[in-house]
């Protein structure tokens, strides 16, 4: 990169965008805005209105180092170390999946169920299996002030990240963590169970974009030989941890609606709702135990 540019906000933004365009990134302008805005703590609007403001040499150096990381396929939000999800600011760590906009659809889908149960029962207890950053559970807790939640994960580092995210979003009093695989560390019942489990078939992982396969934790991606291992484990035991009339919502891969539905039906569940994502692919399934 040239040394002359980058001394103003507009100059730095232009320099970063040019580097990204040259590297053939899909959307260089947006990525440059997110990266420079995140590093300088400026909103999209401020990037424009403060375009002529000087940038400290240290910040220029930091930005150039960040660009080098992005050109090495590290996702922008990983470089920034945090990402917004459903209005929450969430820290990421190497042990957590980066929450994606499609996962907000799981929150959107489960909210009416949580609110209905909340109005009937007064309080709702939520379990988020494989919680990672805590994104799904914390978003539901923020929207439902009477709800409490547990995030379970196999990774101690992920749970530390989730607890920190609960703290920074003012939700720590209503959020607990449990370390273990699926239901191993769970000893109570819930009104709602949610999960965005690993659902990619093992053989496909090597074909994923480097942004995903090199930076998302493998345990959060690998769903076993056919991609369904996590759903089998969840469906097998979920009924024992659900109150009657409880709901379970899972995110799925675009081609897994029929297979995941049959896994849950085989364990005595009924499909009550199926929701598409922004790309019109199957994304979220909601089940209820058929007693």
From TrEMBL:
The keyword Protein biosynthesis does not apply. InterPro entries: DNA_methylase_N6_adenine_CS, HemK-like, N5-glutamine_MTase, PrmC_N, RF_methyltr_PrmC, SAM-dependent_MTases_sf, Small_mtfrase_dom. Residues 117-203 form the Methyltransferase small domain. It catalyses: L-glutaminyl-[peptide chain release factor] + S-adenosyl-L-methionine = N(5)-methyl-L-glutaminyl-[peptide chain release factor] + S-adenosyl-L-homocysteine + H(+). Keywords: Methyltransferase, S-adenosyl-L-methionine, Transferase. Belongs to the protein N5-glutamine methyltransferase family. PrmC subfamily. This is Release factor glutamine methyltransferase. It comes from Rhizobium lusitanum. The gene is prmC.
């Amino acid at each position: 990169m040239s040394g002359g540019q980058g001394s103003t906000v507009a100059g730095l933004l232009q320099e970063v965008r040019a580097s990204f365009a040259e590297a053939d990134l899909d959307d260089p302008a947006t990525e440059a805005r997110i990266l420079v805005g995140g590093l300088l703590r400026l909103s999209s609007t401020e990037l424009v209105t403060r375009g002529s403001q000087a940038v400290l040499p240290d910040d220029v150096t930091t930005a150039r180092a960040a660009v080098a990381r992005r050109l090495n396929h590290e996702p922008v939000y990983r470089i920034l170390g945090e990402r917004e999800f459903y209005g929450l600011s969430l820290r990421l760590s190497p042990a957590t999946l980066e929450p994606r906009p499609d996962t907000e659809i799981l929150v959107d889908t489960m909210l009416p169920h949580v609110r209905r149960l909340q109005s009937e029962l007064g309080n709702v207890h939520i379990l988020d299996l494989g919680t990672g950053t805590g994104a799904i559970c914390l978003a539901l807790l923020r929207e439902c002030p009477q709800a409490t939640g547990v995030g379970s994960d196999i990774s101690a580092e992920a749970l530390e990240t989730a607890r920190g995210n609960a703290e920074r979003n003012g939700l720590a009093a209503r959020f607990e963590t449990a370390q273990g695989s699926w239901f191993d560390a769970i000893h109570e019942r819930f009104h709602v169970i949610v999960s965005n489990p690993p659902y990619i078939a093992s053989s496909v992982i090597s074909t994923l974009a480097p942004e995903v396969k090199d930076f998302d934790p493998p345990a959060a991606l690998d769903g076993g030989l056919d991609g369904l291992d996590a759903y089998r484990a969840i469906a097998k035991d979920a009924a024992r941890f659900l109150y009657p009339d409880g709901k379970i919502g899972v995110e799925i891969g675009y081609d897994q609606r029929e297979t995941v539905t049959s896994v849950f039906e085989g364990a005595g569940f009924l499909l009550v709702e199926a929701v598409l994502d922004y790309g019109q692919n199957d994304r979220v399934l909601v089940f209820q135990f058929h007693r």
